[in-house]
Amino acid sequence: MQTMDLPKFLLGDNTDHPDDLFVIHLDFPRFIVNFNNDDIELLEEPEGLSEAEFQTEMKRLLEEASAFLDREMERYDSE
User: Fold this and answer.
1) Is residue 2 part of a domain?
2) 38: containing domain
3) What are the pLDDT digits (tens) for 5-45?
């Protein structure tokens, strides 16, 4: 069976939450961020990282998630 090549980030929305826009991070540590209210839901515990390392990594990943969202929105607007 061939392994699926998953992207690092996915966009998500839900008609039960029409004002919310989610970005799902699929690499470690997996998480979902709601860019409507900046809530973050970790999908797994960050093992092997100190608190400082984890905070630094999350800051970087949230910046990447925000850039991903901006890029995707620009692409939707140009279509």
Assistant:
1) no
2) 9-78
3) 999 999 999 999 999 999 999 998 999 999 999 999 999 98
